[in-house]
Amino acid sequence: MVNADVNDILFFAVAGHPITVVGADGSYTKPLTRDYIAIAPGQTLDALLHANQQPDHYYMAARAYFTAINVDFDRSTTTAIVQYNGNYTPSPSLSLPYLPNYNDTSASFNFSSSLRSLASEDHPVSVPKNVTTQLITTVSVNTLPCIPNGTCQGPNGTRFSASMNNISFILPSIDILQAYYGHIKGVYGDHFPKYPPYIFNFTDEYLPLNLEIPKLGTEVYILDYNSTVEIVFQGTNLVAGIDHPMHLHGHSFYVVGLGQGNFDPEKDPLGYNLVDPPYRNTVTVPKNGWSTIRFKADNPGVWFMHCHLDRHLTWGMDMVFIVRDGDQWDERMLPPPPDMPPC
């Protein structure tokens, strides 16, 4: 299953049939049987359905999981039918499967936090234990002053924005990959902060309005080849607390921790799963909560990291990693192909 919805995490279920998840984002997981699944934009799940019920027609259904307050969204339920083969008379009316409420954060969190890598002899895990680079980044919805004569839909006539560590990403006129490979100056900066520039109660119900305005910039973070990286994503309640499915290009990562509220750097790492964490490329940061990932930067190049809710991506909840070349010939970024068309 692939969630191709651009702006909604979805709950999905099949009436009368539990679903057994056996893979996530292309990697095997321990079998996890649930009456419903939660899947974010960009995520994939491999699942098994045992057709062991009375031959009939059964609804499968999906609808949005959405937690932002005073923000409109599509409340419809999309359906299809699982139809058994054979000679039988279908039931005259079909029941919808159980789906959690639209704003059931616990249902989404409980599903995501229950996934575990298979971690078998044939499919081992290799969780980085010695972290060489740690980043903690806030993921926030923000506001900016409305442009002159513009139509802005943010609070108090502002326009919506979004940020990581209070920097709202600005797309450059020349792509960063071309600029890095071609040593073109002035396209991007290399000062993406390792930690939030402002420390406050990130998940407080009421936050000062001055914290809502981000800086604008095109900042990257440079990683040495084969460095082991830990990133803590901290959700905030600025403007609107909401879940954020964070996606990294070029690498998969282990989701070693998930939690509610503010990340505690002293206590929360003690509960990290370093034995069989799921291996993914998109992690859902829970509303007003946090997620921790770890990966090895073993793919030289320029890699985008962003929220997979498209509105947040376009608003600036993005950054870029540059992974330097290694020492060996096969540890270096490939050159552009000779037939690459010009932009």
UniProtKB/TrEMBL annotation:
GO terms for cellular component: extracellular region. The keyword rRNA processing does not apply. The keyword Repeat applies. GO terms for molecular function: copper ion binding; oxidoreductase activity. InterPro entries: Cu-oxidase_2nd (IPR001117), Cu-oxidase_C (IPR011706), Cu-oxidase_fam (IPR045087), Cu_oxidase_CS (IPR033138), Cu_oxidase_Cu_BS (IPR002355), Cupredoxin (IPR008972), CuRO_3_LCC (IPR034289). Its cofactor is Cu cation. Residues 2-87, 196-326 form the Plastocyanin-like domain. Coiled coil: none annotated. It is found in: Secreted. Pfam families: Cu-oxidase, Cu-oxidase_2. Keywords: Copper, Glycoprotein, Metal-binding, Oxidoreductase, Repeat, Secreted. PANTHER family: LACCASE, MULTI-COPPER OXIDASE. Belongs to the multicopper oxidase family. This is Laccase. It comes from Vitis vinifera (Grape).
